[in-house]
Amino acid sequence: MTYRQRVHRSSMIICTIFLLLAFLLFMIGIADAARIKEMAYINGARSNQLIGYGLVTGLSGTGDKSNTIFTNQSLANMLETMGIRVDPRSTKVNNIAAVMVTANLQPFARTGSRIDVTVSSIGDAKSIEGGVLVATPLKGVDGAVYAIAQGPIVVGGFLAGGQGASVQKNHTTVGRIASGATIEREVPSEEYKGDEIMIALKMPDFTNARRIVERINDTFSAVAYARDAGTINVKIPTDMRQNPVRFVSIVENLDIKADSLGKIVVDEKTGTVVIGENVRISTVVISHGNISVQIKEDARVSQPMPFSEGRTVTTPDTQIKVREDKGKFYLLQSGITLRELVNALNATGISTRDVITILQTIKASGALFAELEVI
Predict the structure, then answer these.
(1) What's the predicted TM-score (pTM) here?
(2) Could you give the count of Cα atoms lying within 13 Å of 82 in the half-sphere of its Cβ?
(3) Please, is 197 exposed, middle or buried when counting C-beta atoms within 10 Å of its C-beta (0-12, 13-18, 19+)?
(4) pLDDT digits (tens, 9 = 90+) for 331-349
(5) SS3 (DSSP) at 337
């Protein structure tokens, strides 16, 4: 390889390194940013929850038992609307199940559009696999019917077995129907008329409201102002009032470096701990020692000699073992970062549930500057 070729190769390597660094910096900037459309609702555009009660038919003997009164009553009522009168007390079928049907009605959804629904059993059915949901009205909180759901249910699992054993995969009493509901009524939404739109933050925060206002005003000159921590009013520029959809599209795609509250979420049921980035701890010393207690119950039986008139005597025997691990002291300096906090907790070699106890104790001591939420 000649000298010129070596210089050219070195130049290519240096250019590649600079491009990779630039790309990494760009990706870091994107990772720290969030779009306004993920942080807020515009003009109150949000989804609405729908719920309904219905019946699933066609089950292979895995439906509600005959003593489930409301299922039999619902079947009798449905048959009566078709001109067939039956006594619900004498109805004995196990191929139907009573279910609750839920769905989310997205904003700006129009009549005739279709949405997904979730079907869940409320009786003692073993499985709704292979069932078909009969036409079920879905209502909003105002009691009005907004959609009708019907169709075959897809369950991500199965249940099979006999008298002595059974095999089950995943949850078989909850399923989904893709595009299973047809919208019959539209949710009234505020039209983009006039010269102003409103942005409502999903999680009100003064810092985020200020940053959104500054970002919008950097793009459009002095059109936004914050009313409070959760509401921002934005005036539509004169030259874009004939096309407000384009203006809203530009606004909702603006990137904001979102600020978050220092928070730790703990799920004691599963032992899951999620620690936010802005969590800070003042100087504190931690010592944690495990105590394990083992209790073993046994019985000593003393039998009499053969042909004697004695009787068998049973004496309880309880063995108790207590083991306590030696505790070590760990010093956490004030203002440590999230990485340092995680490394310090990992260095103790304790379990996740012990971490939960330590975090609760640090919070009780006043050294944890974050919100601790236990769910």
Answers:
(1) 0.62
(2) 8
(3) buried
(4) 666 666 666 766 776 666 6
(5) coil
Distances (CA, A) of 370 to 211, 265, 276, 281, 373: 22, 10, 9, 8, 10
Q: Could you tell me the domains of the chain? A: 48-183 (no CATH), 191-256 (3.30.70), 263-374 (no CATH)
Q: How confident is the model at residue 222 (pLDDT cuts 50, 70, 90)?
A: confident
7 band by pLDDT with thresholds 50, 70 and 90: very low
**19 pLDDT more than 50:** no
C-alpha distance from residue 51 to each of 20, 104, 120 (Å): 51, 9, 11
Beta bridge partners of 184: none
Residues 6+ apart with CB under 8 A from 245: 192
C-alpha distances in Å from residue 133, one per residue of 55, 83, 101, 120: 6, 20, 9, 11
How many other β-carbons are positioned within 10 Å of the β-carbon of residue 133? 26
Query: Among 214, 263, 253, which residue's Cα sits nearest to residue 30?
Result: 253
Could you tell me which of 99, 70, 98, 73 has the C-alpha nearest to residue 87?
73
Q: Contact, 91 vs 76, CB < 8 A?
A: yes
Q: Tell me how far apart the alpha carbons of residues 233 and 258 are, in angstroms, rounded to a whole number.
A: 19
125 vs 99: CA distance, rounded Å:
10
| HSE-CB of 75 using CA atoms within 13 angstroms | 25
Mean pLDDT of the chain: 79
Phi and psi, residue 283, nearest 5°? -60, 125
Contacts of residue 370, defined as CB under 8 A and 6 or more positions apart, other chains included, come to 261, 262, 263, 264, 276, 278, 279, 280, 363
3 state SS of 257: coil
Any idea which residue has 């700006």 for tokens?
Answer: 108
